[in-house]
Design a protein that fits this description.
single chain; mainly alpha
């Protein structure tokens, strides 16, 4: 299956998105939320397909997985670039950098066969925190301190 099989990962992704949208709703925030969800849903099929290719294997899932992962990630990038990014203020840069760093660590450690690898799991959990901030900061009326407080709430939950 292409759907993420770690049950806790759904909460780590959906809770911050819903929190950001509930406290600072906006159309660009919704676009950002859909983009973050698209990256989440696109990661597993793309990772499975690329893993097959790296090992020199071809299964019925390989190319559809790559295609699905690239499609979801591409759509997410378009949403971020054309809808979310123009609405986000410069004070969101620390959250963007933190989110990017967490995802980089997560992706870099994904080949580890130990599914409970601590750096990978921590990076995935910590990436949830700035998601709420980034969704909320697409609303021009939200105070940056309040938006960053959402990240603090998610960190405490994580």
């Amino acid at each position: 299956s292409y759907l993420p099989n770690e049950h806790g990962s759904w909460g780590f992704v959906l809770e911050p998105i819903l929190l950001g949208l509930a406290l600072a709703p906006s159309a660009p925030g919704l676009a950002g939320a859909l983009a973050f969800l698209g990256f989440f849903l696109g990661y597993r099929p793309l990772a499975l397909g690329l893993s097959d290719i790296r090992r020199g294997k071809r299964y019925p899932r390989t190319w559809p997985g790559v295609a699905l992962g690239l499609t979801l990630s591409g759509a997410a990038l378009l949403l971020l670039w054309f809808v979310w990014w123009p609405s986000v203020r410069h004070d969101a840069v620390p959250a963007i950098l933190f989110y990017g760093a967490c995802l980089t660590v997560y992706a870099a450690t994904s080949e580890n066969k130990a599914q409970r690898d601590l750096p990978r799991k921590l990076a995935g959990a910590l990436a949830a925190a700035p998601t709420a901030t980034l969704v909320a900061m697409a609303n021009p009326s939200i105070d940056p301190g309040a938006a960053y407080a959402l990240a603090g709430l998610i960190l405490l939950r994580s």
